[in-house]
Amino acid sequence: MRAGGQVYACVQIDLICYRDDTTLVVQCKRLSKTKEIPVRENTIAQTYGAARFYSMKHNIDNIKPVIVTSYMVSDEAREFATYLNVHCMEGITIESYPMIKCNTSKSTGEKIYHLPMDQQYDNINIKNNNNSFYAYTVEEAVKKGYRRAFKWKSSS
User: Fold this and answer.
1) Computed from CA positions of residues 82, 91, 30, 96, in that sequence, does the dihedral angle turn out positive or negative?
2) What is the pLDDT of residues 33-72, one digit of tens each?
3) 123 to 18, 34, 118, 156: CA distances (angstroms)
4) What is the dihedral of CA 151, 10, 1, 97, to 10 degrees?
């Protein structure tokens, strides 16, 4: 199993899992039950496209796209998933995990933390070493000397 950070067909794939002769391309959606916003058709289509692209790029025949969500899939998305053969796992409890990426800039040496909604979050790769890690809270990152990533602005 490989976790996180791979982008295929313009969608971030959370897990690529191998078992016997099957490869699962998994997209996880941790959604709020109180907001009642389900997984929609675009997520199904993106995950399907990403799985097909991964299959072609790596010459894999037996590949299965999977959506795992803490909430639910809309009725329209479920119908879409059935047609495209995207397996949906709904109502899955996803435990709390560290999501704040802390790394050291290669160019400036600055310690920077990135929140999931920050511009460069998906481009930051965290490796297990002294200069990068995942934090649970902003307070934890700040305590270790990291500052928030700046929002990039165009010069024009």
Assistant:
1) negative
2) 888 889 999 999 999 999 999 999 999 999 999 999 989 9
3) 24, 30, 10, 23
4) 30
How far apart are the C-alpha atoms of 45 and 81, rounded to whole Å?
A: 8
Q: For helices 75-84 and 41-58, what crossing angle results, to 10°?
A: 20
The count of other CB atoms within 10 Å of the CB of residue 84 is 16
- Residue 12: the pLDDT is 66
Please check whether residue 7 is in contact with residue 54, taking contact to mean a CB–CB distance below 8 angstroms.
Answer: no
Question: What is the rounded distance in angstroms from the CA atom of residue 108 to the CA atom of residue 54?
Answer: 35
Q: Six-digit token pair at 17?
A: 């899992």
How many Å apart are CA 72 and CA 100, to the nearest integer? 25
pLDDT category at 3 given cuts 50, 70, 90 is very low
